[in-house]
Design a protein that fits this description.
Layout lengths: L9 H45 L10 H40 L5 H6 L1 H16 L6 E6 L4 E4 L10 E4 L2 E3 L4 E12 L5 E4 L5 E4 L22 E8 L14 E12 L5 H31 L1
Antiparallel strand pairs: 1-9, 2-3, 3-8, 4-8, 5-6, 5-9, 7-8
Length: 298
């Protein structure tokens, strides 16, 4: 005589319980991570705004335009990360209530279990978008030797060699320039370097333009207004004539680097990841709504 089937074994009970909890765990994780990302976005907006206000706030003269761009990008980044976090948290909360209601009524189906993958994917994408904000902006460095500069004069500025103009280089719209140029004085008789200046005022403009001496300062025009070719101008007060010391005894040369940073590089990636994550958290909500209407119609 065959024995009657006994109660399910403990491992199978645990496995089934775990499977039944998957939708709830996924939606709960989405809610929790969404709250964290929204909080991080709010913190980013708050700390950046406080730092900006401590330096004078919008409309003040903070220096290079790249600083204004950096503050603006960080605030915008905090706003859209906050929005993505809210979408994830709200979606996870609503989905959790729906799944809990279905579990209480014994209506958890294989389709519902499969839909738990969407919240996990949404969490992953939005977390990646938030983590990217911690990465430094990609940048490249151009080196300039003494032979890369020409002594130039600007009308109305002085009779002799007040500026160095560099060789031309290419840049993309919105890229930030950080010139790190110094001037060295070399003895005409020995060629030895006798003096080296600190970082000098510089300006990046189109090759056909001339720097305006009025208001000329470090960082003026240090954001590329468009894709194109640019040159670096370095300002240095030299001598009135070649025979005036120290120009009569020394040769001067400009050397250094130009760091070009793409501060907007990660914005399209973050927006794409956040938008994709928002869509993924919405998919199970739409599917569960359709399933509920079908059940009601029956």
């Amino acid at each position: 005589m065959e024995e009657a089937d006994g109660p399910p074994s403990a491992p199978s009970t645990v496995a089934r319980s775990t499977r039944e909890q998957d939708p709830l765990r996924a939606s709960s994780n989405a809610w929790f991570v969404g709250v964290l990302v929204a909080g991080y976005g709010l913190l980013l907006v708050g700390t950046t705004s406080a730092e900006w206000l401590s330096l004078g706030g919008p409309g003040s003269h903070l220096g290079p335009p790249s600083i204004i761009q950096a503050f603006t990008l960080r605030i915008a980044e905090g706003v859209y990360l906050g929005i993505f976090g809210v979408v994830l948290a709200v979606g996870g909360s609503v989905l959790s209530r729906k799944e809990r209601s279905g579990k209480d009524e014994g209506r958890l189906s294989h389709a519902q279990l499969g839909r738990s993958l969407f919240p996990y994917a949404a969490v992953m994408l939005i977390v990646i978008a938030a983590v990217i904000s911690l990465a430094p902006s990609p940048e490249r460095t151009l080196g300039f030797a003494a032979s890369d500069f020409q002594l130039r004069t600007v009308p109305g500025v002085g009779p002799y060699a007040t500026f160095f103009m560099s060789r031309s280089f290419s840049a993309l719209e919105g890229e930030a320039f950080n010139p790190l140029i110094t001037v060295v004085w070399m003895d005409n008789s020995t060629g030895a370097v006798v003096e080296r200046s600190g970082i000098l005022p510089a300006w990046v403009i189109a090759p056909s333009a001339l720097p305006s001496y009025t208001g000329f300062n470090f960082g003026s025009g240090n954001l590329a207004p468009a894709d194109g070719t640019y040159v670096l101008w370095v300002h240095l007060d030299l001598c009135e004539t070649p025979a005036t010391p120290p120009c009569s005894n020394y040769t001067v040369a400009a050397i250094g680097n130009l760091v070009i940073a793409t501060q907007k590089a990660y914005v399209p990636i973050q927006l794409a990841l956040g938008a994709a994550g928002s869509v993924l958290i919405a998919v199970p909500l739409i599917q569960s709504g359709i399933g509920s209407r079908r059940t009601t119609s029956r």
